[in-house]
Structure formats: structure tokens, C-alpha cells
Amino acid sequence: MQTNLPNLLTYSRIVAIPVVIGMLFLDPPLGNWLALAVYSLAGITDFFDGYLARAWSQQSSMGRFLDPIADKLLVAAVILMLVGLDRIGGPTLLAAAVILCREILVSGLREFLAEVRVSLPVSRLAKWKTVLQLFVLGFLIVGDVGPDFGPLGTREVGEIGLWLAAVLTLITGYDYLRAGLVHIANADDPANKRPPAPVTEPMPSEDKTPSAGQTNR
For 149, phi and psi rounded to 5 degrees? Predict the structure, then answer.
């Protein structure tokens, strides 16, 4: 199950990261378009790995573990490269910082909740947030060598989209944090830390038929 097609598509998204980074070092416009081509293929796998896993009943723990991580790695790597290449600059740096900080926050929250055996499933809005991030970063990869969309250039469209993605990032990050804080408070509740009551064996003279309460335990 670790090497089924859905998982291989997830792996390919991770493998594509250094390829996209390498393409971004090439001279424009060729490097921009080659990076976009590889990046777009990687982004498409984000849809098909989950879809095929559900359609073919090939869902696995490895897939559930790596799928969101692959998305975060791809988004974070591209954002850092675009900042380094000055394709994300000025006030838009704040939007990029919000996205990266949120991903770190949610990852840390998931790690803690895993220790107390609480799952934090991905919400539908968070999935749309990821789709929007992947989409607008494509515009920023092309940057100034892309076509104009009315009064806006390709880079400006990407910057506006990144701000929209940052807003969704804040909303979904708040939702996760609010849900996580409830579980954190429960974990700190002394009542939840009490050791279980010892189980005593009934005396021979007692009725050994379990009561309703004993059955439920």
C-alpha cells in the first residue's frame, strides 16, 4: 500500500520541489515557464492522489500523513524562493509571512494533539485555502514575464491572490487553534489525569453476574 499510485503521486510532489527550485535559477523567461510547468504538474497531483485513493479504496496512513506535508513543503519552498528572488517583496512579504507562520503553528498543534491521541482533520475551507495558495503561486512563479490581465500584470494578480490566501490562512488557522485549545485545556484538567480506579475481584459469596455499569466498562 505504500507504493500504490495515490502515494506515488504524493511522493512526486515532494520530489518536484528541488526541480522547481532549480528551474527558478534559470534565466527568464525560459526558467519561469519551465518552473511553472513542473510546479503545475506537482499541483495537479494534489487533487488526483486523494481522488484516486478514495475511488480505488487505497487510502493509507502514509498517504494521510504525507499529503498535507507535501502541500506545505511545496508552498513553503516556493514562497522562500520567490522572496529570495525578489518576486515577492514590499507589503506582500507580510502575506507570505502569515502563510508560513500559520503552517508552523498548525503543524506544532497537530504534533501536540497527536501526543494526547486527538486528531485534527483538515477542514473543507483549509482545502480551498491550499488550492488558492497553489494557484496564485503559479502567477508569481511566472512573474513579470507573463501576460497582462486587463490593467493587472501576472505578478500583480499573484500578489492580490496571495493576500486573499493569507486571509483564508488566518481564518482556518484561528479555527484550528480554537479547536486545539479546547483539547489542550482538557489535557491540563486534573480530572482527566486521575488514575483509573482499581478493579477488585468479587468475594466468592457475591453475585458474579455483571451489573449494567460493569458491562459498560
Answer: -120, 85
CB count within 10 Å of CB 68 equals 19
Expressed in angstroms, the distance from the first to the final Cα of the chain is: 36
Torsion of CA 171, 172, 174, 176, to 10 degrees: 170
Q: Do residues 113 and 180 touch, judged by C-beta distance below 8 A? A: yes
Per-residue pLDDT tens digits for 81-123: 999 999 999 999 999 999 999 989 988 888 888 777 777 777 7
Query: If you ran DSSP here, which 8-state letter would residue 153 be given?
Result: E
Cell numbers placing 34: 519551465
Determine the pLDDT at residue 214: 42
The answer to whether the beta carbons of residues 159 and 171 sit under 8 Å apart is no
pTM across the whole model = 0.80
Q: What is the pLDDT of residue 65?
A: 80
CATH topology of domain 5-194: Four Helix Bundle (Hemerythrin (Met), subunit A) (1.20.120)
What residue segments make up the domains of the chain, in order of their start? Answer: 5-194
Is it the case that residue 217 has pLDDT exceeding 60? no
Q: Are 46 and 159 in contact (CB under 8 A)?
A: no
Q: Which of 134, 67, 124 is nearest to 99 (CA)?
A: 134
Contact between 173 and 102 (Cβ < 8 Å): yes
* Rounded CA separation 105/148 (Å): 36
Rg of the chain (C-alpha set) = 24
